[in-house]
Design brief:
The protein has one helix at 2-17, and strands at 32-34, 39-41, 61-69, 76-84, 87-95, 100-109, 113-122. With 149 residues, the chain is mainly β.
Length: 149
């Protein structure tokens, strides 16, 4: 077993050092690769399929929003975002563990890059959810009894 481990380690070391050729994934490999020191036979390569060229939208536009208000867990979060070309702006909010509502308003464009303004608003009515775990009853410890005759 140790021999297999060292053989695999030697192969990985040889590939890492560049002694053995490693074929690129994005093109078909030649049938035989030759180097100055010796030719190395390579198995028959199957052509690699590539994805068809995807359509490019020079002026992408979208709008989306979501809102989660879960009374059972106290989870409260929302987001709104809009994109028009290279300009994106939006806002999201969530309730932090310390009872503050975090509201982040952000914009991104090619001139100013990404900018965000973060506001924290204290919430007095935030319900704290505490989950309790029932205590585990201790199992009796088996005791070995020896009878003396």
């Amino acid at each position: 077993m140790a021999f297999k481990f060292f053989a695999a380690l030697a192969l990985v070391s040889a590939v890492s050092a560049g002694v053995l050729p490693v074929q690129q994934v994005y093109h078909a490999a030649p049938a035989v690769a030759t180097y100055a020191h010796a030719p190395v036979a390579v198995g028959h390569a199957q052509p690699v399929l590539t994805k068809a060229t995807e359509e490019y939208d020079p002026h992408p536009q979208y709008k989306f929003a979501y809102d989660v208000q879960d009374a059972l867990s106290g989870d409260s979060k929302s987001q709104v975002e809009e994109r028009d070309g290279d300009v994106v702006h939006g806002e999201y909010s969530l309730i932090d563990a310390d009872g503050f509502k975090r509201i982040v308003q952000y914009t991104s464009d090619p001139v100013n890059g990404f900018n965000a303004v973060v506001n924290r608003v204290p919430l007095d009515h935030v319900k704290t959810v505490v989950k309790t775990v029932a205590p585990v009853a201790a199992a009796p410890i088996p005791v070995a009894y020896h009878q003396h005759h």
